Amino acid sequence: MGRLLEHHSKQLFKEMGIAVPSYEVATSEDEAQEAARRIGKPVVIKALVPVGKRGKAGAIKFAHTPQEAALRAGELLGITVRHFPVEKVLVEEKLDVAQEWYLSITYDKNKQLPVIIASTRGGVDVEELSRSYPAEMVIHQVDPFEGLPGFRAREIWADLGVGGKLLGAAGALLSKLYATFDRYDAYLLEVNPLVVTTGGELVAAAAVMSVDDSAMYRQPRLADMVQLGSERAWRPLTELEKKMVEVNESDPYRGTARYTEMPGGDIGFMCGGGGGSLLCFDTLVSLGGRPANYSEVGGNPPEAKVYGLTKGILSKPGVKGLFVAHNITNNTQVDVLARGIIRALKDLNIDPVTFPVVVREAGVNDAVARELFTAAGVEYYGDEVTLTEACARMVARMKEVYGEGGRP
Amino acid sequence: MGILIDRHSRIVIQGITGREASMVTRHTLAYGTRIVAGVTPGKGGQEVHGVPVYDTLKAACREHQPDTSLIYVPPAFVYDAVAEAVANGIKLILIPTENVPQKDAVKFLNLARRAGVRVIGPNSVGMINPGERVKLGAIGGDNVERCFVPGPVGVISRSGGMTAETSWMIKRAGYGVSTSVSIGGDALIGSTIKDLLALFEADPQTRAVVVFSEPGTSQEEEAAAFIQERGFTKPLIAYIAGRFTEDMPEGTVFGHAAALISGNYGRPSIKAARLREAGAHVLDNFDDLIPTLKQILG
């Protein structure tokens, strides 16, 4: 799931014929001031960061004059909103609001259908909407084969009491929003508020869009808008994480090597697959171990990918040991893993006597892996121990080499 | 016995000529499982390890009457392959493909459900019934018996790799499995934990079920409710990995695509609490699986 910045979502909206406020992107106070002057109206200044609920986080401000716009932009640029530094702001025309509505489209994972939530009460978040005003909400499950024909879209608004000239416009707008959701493989599309202006126009005042990263192969339009791998971090990717994304993407169709840097820690964590990694991380932590990163390696990666990931894991400052473990593999060749890992250890002149390395790799070609690891002086286990036992061995080795407190 | 597949299953592989599908075909035949046909458009008339290949599933069905399909095609082609299987009367579909777009998954899951076709996956490493020597997918690789031997325990795993490790732990405890099913790590899958518990309930070979879970989805909560409604009455042992993710900022995916926490939704601690309330054995330590099984099965 990749979240788009608001100006990207609004660009897509515009291309689909959906009205949005006039806006410009600014990276400095001067640019914000100029943008406000060009817009020629009171403006809204919004931090361009890929997180939700920016209003509550103090990341949305209002300005009546270009001078004030510069001041408000200055307050936002350089601060951090939910772990994301603000490098750009959106300077946007402040609308003359008559009514604020709410509209979102996402997938109902239990019913396995697209779902539209609409309300003529907007400006509050959907949780509060469903808690406080359930009678003023319509929840419509979309038949994925039917899509959202015009009459369905009009029914949704009519059920909320919308009538007159506004009904046709609201129906047409909703059809376009659903078409945007569908066309760009969105996972979430939220317009809150959807503004009815004093002039009777419907304008998507705020736009939040997340797109399905599995569909990027057929969404070239989104390529520059979504940071690959960003769904796996709660903050901008670190330099090391970006490098590891490159390692993974260098051979995208063979195996997976994912890396997430964790705060602190001293155990380099080189594990897989998805479930095995979660289990090993929990187990190391419960035994008092401190993993320095999270990783997932699987799907039979080539040696170069394993080598690149291992080097990355070991390059994080403070890493003083390496734990390598997988569930017993169905198809991943563990001799290939062994070659990549051993090459990385040799390149970095790591001596497994003074730098703890514990390996638990069983599965395809593990007899060869045992020979390779043993010859390299690495403490190796196959299926004679469980994953939990291997985790315990790793934590014990760290204590042997560095003492209880982690220092020799 | 066991669930979903047995020696009477008539298996076809869609996309059989691909590199991985061909390897899986070799391992599956070596294990003793029959594969009646394969399909790859444009490669009709070829053979893969002796299995005849057809251009269309329709042609394969005419000659071999398959009822079970293993779909080994890249993400962009999964929707079409499932639609082809449903259109040709296949009753059980297993999808190993990872990274299938959600929009496509929604469509083919609904298409299959309306036609009464059961889907396992996407993102499933497969399933196996060792008592019948039948496996579907890469599960077990070329050394099936290392992890999978016949016995009284059903396995349901949200992680493909841990399907093998869990079954191996059961063997290490001195038992074996009736059927082990990797249900897929995606947020949108065809058969959930609860769906399979209903099948294991009806299987006389199965005396207990082990579930390997992860953060995300509400499958465990639904399974707990199903137990409380007496839909599943056999002993259930569950391990929920990824407790550490509860301490991380929300909205971060660790593990499979489905492993997303939002508010209370998807939290391992809440899943564990619900399952415990329903009477399941929830393990804090995965190695406790062995003594727990011995205590339950005697």
UniProtKB/TrEMBL annotation, chain B:
GO terms for cellular component: succinate-CoA ligase complex (ADP-forming). One of its GO terms (biological process) is tricarboxylic acid cycle. Coiled coil: none annotated. InterPro entries: CoA-bd, CoA_lig_alpha, NAD(P)-bd_dom_sf, SUCC_ACL_C, Succinyl-CoA_synth-like. GO terms for molecular function: nucleotide binding; succinate-CoA ligase (ADP-forming) activity; succinate-CoA ligase (GDP-forming) activity. Keywords: Ligase, Nucleotide-binding. The keyword Ligase applies. Its EC number is 6.2.1.5. SUPFAM superfamilies: NAD(P)-binding Rossmann-fold domains (SSF51735), Succinyl-CoA synthetase domains (SSF52210). It is an enzyme of class 6 (ligase). The active site is at H256. It comes from the Bacteria. It holds the Pfam family Ligase_CoA. Residues 4-100 form the CoA-binding domain. Belongs to the succinate/malate CoA ligase alpha subunit family. This is Succinate--CoA ligase (ADP-forming).
